[in-house]
Amino acid sequence: MSRGREEVVIVGGGLAGASAASTLADAGRPVLVIERDAEARHKVCGEFLSIEAQTYLSHLGIDLDAVGASRISRLRLVRKLKLIEVELPFVARGLSRRVLDEALLREAEARGARILRGRAVRSISTDHSGVAIDMGPGDSIAAGSVLLASGKHDVRGVKRTSSGAMNDLIGFKLHYRMARNERQDLDGAVEVILFRGGYAGLQMVEQDIANLCLVVSRQRFEQVGKNWDDLLSSITDECPHLGERLQCARALFERPLSIFQIPYGFLHGPDRDEPQGLFRLGDQVGVIPSFTGEGMSIALHSGCLAASIYLDHGQAASIFHHRVRSDIGRSIRLASTLNSAVRHAAGQQAIFRLSRLWPGAMRHVAALTRVQEASMHNVLFAS
Ligand SMILES: Cc1cc2nc3c(=O)[nH]c(=O)nc-3n(C[C@H](O)[C@H](O)[C@H](O)COP(=O)(O)OP(=O)(O)OC[C@H]3O[C@@H](n4cnc5c(N)ncnc54)[C@H](O)[C@@H]3O)c2cc1C
Predict the structure, then answer these.
(1) How distant, in Å, are the alpha carbons of 119, 232, 242, 264, 278 from that of 215?
(2) PANTHER family from the xrefs (predicted)?
(3) Residues 259 and 171 sit within 8 Å (Cβ to Cβ)
């Protein structure tokens, strides 16, 4: 069945897709979002919301207090038996992706976007007349423009050209119900735990739930026989602080969620032959290493920016790709260089020493890896 022709279709109803949908619907434009999952689900993510992400969320009508997000004002850096604590330059928030993604998609719907849930796009093809979206045998939609916001999932016909340099990392995420004492200690802080071959983030999200999210080299995972329990116990042996935190905590998933070959450092390079009318958002346009806690704000920025450029210039995707690249390129390059250091013992030692000698160092680095205020101002002011 052909579902006819749409002006704009957004593929993927995560942060990037939902923010673009809200912005377009707000401007009175008809927009259809196709989201593979029938309902929001947990995703591999540290669930740390930077101040930039919070600014976009508030602009998009999300009240983080109403949805129960935690508050985080301190960062604890932990390595082996050592711990350093610094104040964050802003109050961050913690919120599970399941709650956040659902709230954003509902808000887009309330503003007038149509959401087709539980349908996956199988392939996309483009020609001079527009874009054809295939959702399985006999099920297709024609569109003037497509905003591709499928996150880490590539879609046939429009796959990302490069998978980035750092693709040997594996990401894991697990929620825990914390014991009372540990919860009190963790409240208000994000703990970044450095270990051989990777790093973890532990923080409260909503209610008494904590999120443990870690990335680890494939080599270290293979050394423990690719077994999650053995990986976790080898990390807690190396870093007893994490062991204490989790000792009386109850895991809320049967097994952790995982993601393989994270293309940290990927940045979409506009291609002269790329068709107009195909906009790449969120992880489809750039992937920043997760220790920065900035991936979600990049997704929200790119979603709002793509929508506002579409409203001003129609199908001119190349204008958007040049703008977004200049807004996020520097952060991704710097964060990728630091990511290599964070994974290795010598780099971890250097980061620890520097943070002791100069407590402001982490704040300084954080400022350099963020979406800059001027770029955000242009988008927020435009819409
Ligand atoms: C280990 C790790 C930790 C992270 N921690 C943080 C953090 O603490 N803070 C932070 O800000 N960022 C973090 N990030 C980054 C952040 O999670 C991503 O950058 C962000 O989710 C990207 O948003 P998106 O909208 O592009 O993709 P997603 O949120 O992944 O959304 C994509 C959507 O598209 C849908 N979809 C996919 N394929 C199809 C299809 N074919 N048809 C229809 N729908 C489809 C999916 O179901 C999904 O809902 C982390 C990333 C990793 C890997």
Answers:
(1) 30, 12, 15, 11, 31
(2) CONDITIONED MEDIUM FACTOR RECEPTOR 1, GERANYLGERANYL DIPHOSPHATE REDUCTASE
(3) yes
Q: Is the pLDDT of residue 337 over 70?
A: yes
Residue 299 included in any domain: yes
Which domain CATH number covers 52? 3.50.50.60
Find the 381 Cα to ligand 1 centroid distance in Å.
26
**Are 279 and 311 a contacting pair, CB within 8 Å?**
no
> Is the C-beta atom of 102 inside 6 A of ligand 1?
no
Query: Residue 314 is which amino acid?
Result: G
Do the beta carbons of residue 383 and residue 304 sit within 8 Å? yes
User: Ligand 1 pocket check: which of 50, 122, 153 to mutate, most ligand atoms within 8 Å of Cβ?
Assistant: 153
Is the per-residue pLDDT at 166 higher than 80? Answer: no
Structure tokens at 132: 């054809």
> Is 30 within 8 Å of 8 (Cβ atoms)?
yes
Is 79 a residue whose pLDDT tops 70? yes
Sign, CA torsion 284/303/73/43: negative
What's the gap in Å between 84 CA and the centre of ligand 1? 30
Is there a domain that residue 237 lies in? no
Q: Quick check: CB of 296 below 6 Å from ligand 1?
A: yes
Q: Is 325 inside any structural domain?
A: yes
Number of domains in the chain: 1
pLDDT digits (tens, 9 = 90+) for 189-204: 999 999 999 999 999 9
210: burial class by Cβ within 10 Å (0-12, 13-18, 19+)?
buried
Supply the angle between the helices 361-368 and 345-357 in degrees, to the nearest 10: 110
Share the mean pLDDT of the chain. Answer: 91
Would residue 81 count as lying in a domain?
A: no
pLDDT tens for each residue of 174-184: 999 999 999 99
Query: 286 in ligand 1 pocket by Cβ < 6 Å?
Result: no
Mean predicted confidence (pLDDT) in 234-257: 96
Taking 90 as the threshold, does the pLDDT of residue 355 lie above it? no
Range of the domain at 22: 2-68+94-163+264-344+360-382
